[in-house]
Automatic annotation (TrEMBL):
It comes from Bemisia tabaci. It holds the Pfam family WD40. GO terms for molecular function: RNA binding. Keywords: WD repeat. The keyword Transit peptide does not apply. This is WD repeat-containing protein 79.
């Protein structure tokens, strides 16, 4: 079918309704959604000791406080750029960003870039207390850098991270030909490593990772399996969750914010599965994307699952109350294999995504869908030009009406395109220079409470 979009006029989309309704299930999903199993404690590695060091339990009070959201108001019709950084610019233009993520307490931003480095940027002091848009902020400069030995595949924050508790200030990353690393977000020191070995007893890399909601387990995606580590026990001891009925490289992992025993996993083989961690079983698979899955997110109420894929112009919203049913599609421009992040507002009302052409698009999910050639879509509510290059990273601050975006993609001159492998997925060089930048945006009003939980 042909879907009209604000970015490119007409996008040809060949997904048929029969593909959108693809479902394989064993009937366990409805029962799992009724059970809520929320852990209130999570052990961490005590920084300063070795990998077999003492364990500290994070209290229930910390878990509640670190996730309690102030009443953030987002107004996507009133967006203003606050500050950016040129730290990723170099003469070669090759140090492109590959994503950005706010910390759970909203005090800092973590970025991933092509130079195999994780950078941490603090929230500018002026944005902690002011109720008005701050002008003339100094360019962002990273305060910490964590260097990996190879290309960083994925990274994530510890979910209970709070600046009031330094022990919880940590993050995990996985990179090429390396074990999984747990980094200290105060000192950039390596706290622990989690090693996965193949049949030849050589370290193999995870492609994706995510902490469980309670932070007590670290899930690492590989080919046809997920390795599950106890966060408090680094080393090579892990449980293998085999993907018997869902083959392929596990490219993204997400957990239900309501029923913590429900996990979703996507693969580069276009499959999306829902799992019950009560018995480590596959409950159902959802089929509908044209490309390999790159990003998935549950809605805050746990009733919907959003998914995006490579070279696929749709973000699909799956109805988990009726597995296999798609509530609606959100149309964006994704023309390469690059991971293009999207995010949801804390109340689930808005979905925000970057695009290959640098536009950030916003959808209001409370609006009724329209039927276009048999497929339900929600029209874009607003958009703005965030970058002059691919807007690959996007993250909403849960405690301030702030948005972080990052840009960058591979560029080559047109006369070199025939010489490259198709897997590199190059983009012809645009008329303007490539843009590799991190930007902060004010999204309408400040918070009602004007209190930043840290």
């Amino acid at each position: 079918m042909s879907l009209e979009t604000e970015d490119n006029g007409i996008l040809e989309n060949n997904i048929h309704q029969s593909e959108h309704n693809g479902l394989e299930t064993n009937g366990k999903l409805s029962n799992a959604m009724d059970d809520v199993n929320i852990s209130t404690k999570s052990p961490l590695i005590d920084n300063g000791n070795d990998e077999n060091s003492s364990i500290k339990n994070v209290s229930e009070e910390l878990q509640v406080n670190s996730h309690e959201n102030s009443h953030v108001i987002y107004d996507f019709n009133n967006i203003q750029e606050l500050v950016s950084t040129n730290e990723f610019s170099d003469s070669s233009g090759k140090n492109l960003l590959r994503g950005c993520k706010w910390s759970p307490d909203g005090t800092c931003i973590l970025t991933n870039s092509q130079d195999n480095t994780l950078r941490l940027f603090n929230l500018p002091n002026e944005l902690y207390s002011s109720n008005t848009v701050v002008q003339d902020l100094k360019p962002l400069q990273s305060v910490l850098r964590m260097q990996e030995g190879g290309l960083i595949y994925d990274f994530c924050w510890y979910p209970l991270m709070s600046s009031w508790e330094p022990l919880t200030c940590c993050l995990a990353s996985t990179s090429a030909k390396s074990p999984i690393h747990l980094w200290d977000a105060y000192s950039s020191e390596l706290r622990a490593t989690y090693r996965i070995y193949d049949n030849a007893d050589e370290v193999t890399s995870a492609v994706s990772l995510n902490f469980s909601p309670a932070g007590d387990q670290l899930f690492c995606g590989l080919k046809n399996m997920i390795a599950v580590f106890d966060t408090a026990i680094p080393g090579r001891d892990y449980f293998s969750l085999k993907m018997k009925d869902m083959k392929g490289i596990i490219s993204c992992i997400a957990f239900s914010p309501v029923a913590h025993q429900i996990m979703a996993a996507g693969t580069y083989s276009k499959a999306l599965g829902l799992f019950s961690l009560d018995d480590n079983s596959l409950m159902c698979t959802l089929n509908g994307h044209r490309g390999g899955l790159t990003h998935i997110m549950f809605s805050p109420d746990g009733t919907k699952l959003y998914s995006g894929a490579r070279k696929d112009h749709e973000i699909l919203c799956w109805d988990l109350r009726n597995p296999g049913s798609i509530l609606f599609s959100l149309i964006r421009t994704v023309e390469t294999n690059q991971r293009i992040y999207f995010d949801l507002s804390p109340d689930g009302k808005y979905v925000i995504s970057g695009t290959t052409c640098g536009t950030v698009k916003v959808w209001d999910t409370t609006q009724p869908p329209e039927e276009v050639n048999g497929i339900s879509i929600i029209r874009c509510a607003s958009k703005f030009q965030a970058h002059n290059d691919c807007a690959n990273g996007l993250s909403l601050n849960r405690h301030r009406s702030l948005l972080a975006t990052s840009s960058g993609q591979h560029h080559v001159e047109k006369n070199l395109l025939p010489l490259l492998d198709d897997e590199e997925d190059p983009v012809s060089l645009p008329s303007q220079a490539p843009e590799n930048s991190l930007k902060l945006w004010q999204v309408g009003s400040r918070t009602k409470s004007n209190i930043l939980l840290s």
